[in-house]
Amino acid sequence: MADDLTQGIIRLDDMLSEAREALKSTRAAGPADAAEAGEAVKGLGEAADGQVKATVASGGKVEKIVVDPRLVRQGIEVVCEHIVKAVNAGLDDLRAKAAAAPDAANVDTAALSARLQELQDQSLQQMTQISDALNTVVARMRGR
């Protein structure tokens, strides 16, 4: 009886792992996926004729900003405006690269939906078996 329960739990865990993998494979290159795949997607932006450069990583994180020291002479407000422009350009570049990623265009949502429905049905069946096994154990314990 305990073996049935253990096998049911293991099978349920396997099904949940399959569901997570299916969902993971459908996501466009997000921060975690890009790092795992070794293909970090980055956006590059410039402003002030290249005097300000910004690098934006997956997930919209600003990774690096480089400002030509000569630009500082124009005042902090001007420098800040150019930084904002460079970062926004980097974000636009990042979005364009993410949209062009091959994985984003190849998602078969109908197949994914069908597979998730199958996993849900199997998990309900496993949970019923686990519940039945627990009920049997409880009944035997009360019978003693």
Polypeptide structure, described:
By secondary structure, this protein is α+β, with helices and mostly antiparallel strands. The chain folds into 2 domains: 1-23 and 107-144; 42-100, Ybab, Chain: A. The chain has 5 helices and 3 strands, in the order ααβββααα. The chain has helices at residues 2-26, 31-37, 76-99, 102-105, 109-143, and strands spanning 42-47, 52-57, 61-67. Strands 1-2-3 form a 3-stranded antiparallel beta sheet. The protein is elongated, with a radius of gyration of 26 Å.
Basic shape? elongated
Discrete helix count: 5
- Uncertain ranges: 27-38
Ends apart, CA distance between termini: 16 Å
Record the strand order, biggest sheet: 1-2-3
Strand content of the residues, in percent? 5-15%
The chain-level mean pLDDT equals 75
Secondary structure tally: strands: 3
Largest sheet entry = 3 strands, antiparallel
Oligomeric state as shown: single chain
How many domains make up the 3D coordinates? 2
Task: Round the Cα radius of gyration to an integer and report it.
Answer: 26 Å
Order of helices and strands: HHEEEHHH
Helix content: 55-70%
Q: What structural class is derived from the secondary structure elements? A: alpha+beta
